């Protein structure tokens, strides 16, 4: 093996064979070296691979063996894994420590140590939330999220999204079609799913949502590199508890939180600990223009997981594509959801609606202005939303079989984040 280490790789090929109906989740990798040798590795995705080193004496013979073996595998049904060849291509991607440094420099925090510590926490939370629930890892040497076989291409991620949409629609109705879709999906996004592979692993909507988040993280690792020049344009200013004005603001928002809570919600046990004023100029400017046009501004709470906050600081709140797989929050159409009832929104921040069973140490909720404009107030949800001629949907408690108040706006410029509230 010392000879292989010292030799230079001339060519590599990674092939994958996933057939859910056969419980097959296999990989084959071939490497051609300039010393006239060929290394074959094979096994189950995510496991330690078996290997055989062929010393053939010349590059021509080694290449012939390499190409011949590759053709044999392809005839058996293996396909080329869509990987970024050579991780050196990703060396200028933002690494965790670099992202911390960039976020600390670009997010204006007034040199406040609490705000700086919050930024550090959000960076780590963003990475940890992704890597802790999947065998896809963050490589600190390259700064990229990786599948067990390597970094996947943007094309593979885009194709996988289409398959995941079909998987979500098929998961309960057609086992044969579902197995086919899963096989195609897992050839694009290789994962270690244990010794037994069948469609039941994708039976729950929570698993579909998890896969959707995996694709988002893989995509974001590439997208953030494209925007490296100026990743963040926003400000976090901690509301100080040591000033008269700071104490007054904290009391007002704490009173709003308590007065709009529902003690029957699990989230009602959380108490407001810290308050940060947020300013995302692009979001504020777009909202100001929209507010002048449609008016009817109301304060709403918007709950989100800590792992999402770094993305929100980068680009504000977004409306997921209509095709995106979501567990919650789509009953009244594709928009940004908020609530005047604080604990209704806070439940989203504590993973209550996703039934993950996880209890967060630090819980965050956003207090936003919603430009509601002309509101549609439904008595049922048996129609398409948004309703033509209306700017928003306002669902009163008890209407449309909804227990808690909900508001939905359908354009990102109808929302502006004012405060980030931290609970524990």
Automatic annotation (TrEMBL):
It is an enzyme of class 2 (transferase). This is NAD(+) ADP-ribosyltransferase. It comes from Waterburya agarophytonicola KI4. The keyword Glycosyltransferase applies. Residues 222-424 form the PARP catalytic domain. Gene3D superfamilies: 3.90.228.10, Poly(ADP-ribose) polymerase, regulatory domain, WGR domain. Keywords: Glycosyltransferase, NAD, Transferase. SUPFAM superfamilies: ADP-ribosylation (SSF56399), Domain of poly(ADP-ribose) polymerase (SSF47587), WGR domain-like (SSF142921). The keyword Glycosyltransferase applies. One of its GO terms (biological process) is protein poly-ADP-ribosylation. It catalyses: NAD(+) + (ADP-D-ribosyl)n-acceptor = nicotinamide + (ADP-D-ribosyl)n+1-acceptor + H(+). One of its GO terms (molecular function) is NAD+-protein mono-ADP-ribosyltransferase activity. It holds the Pfam family PARP. Its EC number is 2.4.2.30. Residues 6-91 form the WGR domain.
